[in-house]
Amino acid sequence: MSGQSQRLNVVPTVTVLGVIKARLIGATRGHALLKKKSDALTVQFRQILKKIVSTKEEMGEFMKTSSFALTEVKYVAGDNIKHTVLENVHTATLRVRSRTENVAGVKLPKFEYFHEGETKNDLTGLARGGQQVQKCREAYVKAIEVLVELASLQTSFLTLDDAIKTTNRRVNALENVVKPRLENTISYIKGELDELEREDFFRLKKIQGYKKRELERQLASAHQFAEDQVAEKMSLQKGISINAAHNLLTEANKKDEDIIF
């Protein structure tokens, strides 16, 4: 991209130069702040990525354990245990709530689980079926807790990913478009102001030369007028022509110059 297209179309004046310099300072500060924000978000992004990997591994273990527990329940109590469990459950004891966490100006959604109420163990004593159901329930509760944590991490991960992309686009725009354009504009204005200053200097020199020539012309005219007056007076006194009087004055001036030098 050429320098002409990289600068703004502005009038090259001192006032505009000050405004462009202030805008360049603001763009530089904004670029530094956005760069720090991008670095902070990237650090948080990597931490969340590590947590997601470890949480997924834990979730695989918990899901495997809970599946085995469900298989043991079906083996001990039979397939009809499902209806018995559903009849004894009225309200959910494990609930999820959401909140937001501010990280470098980015609001990350967070999901938290909490227990509400107490769980009644009404199936104990039925040929160890109740105990197996309780173990299966505990295994699935742990799996749900890990699942909620994973959902929170993945949601924060996606939100951070979008925020980092937006911030990096702004950083690149300031670094590669806005700042070079302002810098080129400042260089253009400085060049134009220097050119105007050179033109003013040349104009002043021409005016001074014209005044000097005019002064020399006026002095020469005054000297010629004075010489004419003296020649006319001499011609009247000596009774000679004006040209002869001029010749005498010229010879007298030459003699004076020879004496001086």
UniProtKB/TrEMBL annotation:
InterPro entries: V_ATPase_D
UniProt keyword list: Ion transport, Transport
Residues that span the membrane, as ranges: none
GO molecular function list: proton-transporting ATPase activity, rotational mechanism
Superkingdom, taxonomy of origin: Eukaryota
Family to which this protein belongs: Belongs to the V-ATPase D subunit family.
Protein name: V-type proton ATPase subunit D
Taxonomic source organism: Aquilegia coerulea (Rocky mountain columbine)
